[in-house]
Amino acid sequence: MKRHDGRRQADRHWLRAMSLSLAAVLAGCAGLPIGQVPAPDAEEPRHGRGPEAPISELPGDPQTPPEEFPALPGGAGPDVELEPDYHPAGQALIDEARRERVLGRDAAAGATLERALRIDSQNPWIWIELGKLRLAAGELAATRSMAQKALTLADRDPAARAEAGYLLRQADGGS
């Protein structure tokens, strides 16, 4: 009878530990509401760049008027590379899928990326990672399709365009 009580007590400790772990994980997932962006931290540079200087501190003569550029035909402006804006949960799932792949759990990585697609289907990196999984499995047609989808979505992300192009060349048997 004593042995049975010890087992029951161990089960309760395990259940309590798992409940606390689950609560901690869920609390960590409960960030800001969708669409709300945290205020930038002055201490931490954003995307590898240093903090931007206020306009009053920018070099140059304040008396000199800005340089005028001639208008382009059709009213088109210059091509401007905008910083991509991907959903943070999608990015976190991409990172999780990459860890799964490193551990050799390709099926789990695929499932994680499918979840990421339901959150942010416009993120080319999700399609790129799915394409890499398909390439590793020898599914060249699926790899090609996912690389092309990523290229379509990567109009504002030069790194994603380059990676999707490389993946497409790999699917076509190229270098």
TL;DR of this structure?
With 175 residues, this protein is an all-alpha fold. The chain has helices at residues 2-29, 88-102, 106-119, 124-136, 140-153, 158-171.
Biggest sheet, open or closed, and with what strands and sense? none
Indicate the mean pLDDT.
Answer: 74
**CATH hierarchy, class of the domain at 88-171:** Mainly Alpha
Shape annotation: elongated
Helix content: 55-70%
CATH architecture of the domain at 88-171: Alpha Horseshoe
CATH superfamily of the domain at 88-171, by name, is Tetratricopeptide repeat domain
Secondary-structure-based class equals mainly alpha
Low-confidence stretches: 42-61, 69-78
Helix and strand sequence: HHHHHH
Taking the alpha carbons of the first and last residues, their distance comes to 69 Å
Count of β-strands: 0
Write the CATH fold name of the domain at 88-171. Answer: Serine Threonine Protein Phosphatase 5, Tetratricopeptide repeat
The radius of gyration is 24 Å
Strand content: under 5%
Helix run count: 6
Tell me what you see in this structure:
By secondary structure, the chain is mainly α. The chain has a domain at 88-171: Alpha Horseshoe (Serine Threonine Protein Phosphatase 5, Tetratricopeptide repeat), CATH 1.25.40. Helix content is 56%, strand content 0%. It is built from six helices and no strands. Helix 2 packs antiparallel against helix 3 (106-119), helix 4 (124-136) runs antiparallel to helix 5 and helix 4 runs parallel beside helix 6 (158-171). The relative contact order is 0.07. The model is unreliable at 42-61 and 69-78 (pLDDT under 50).
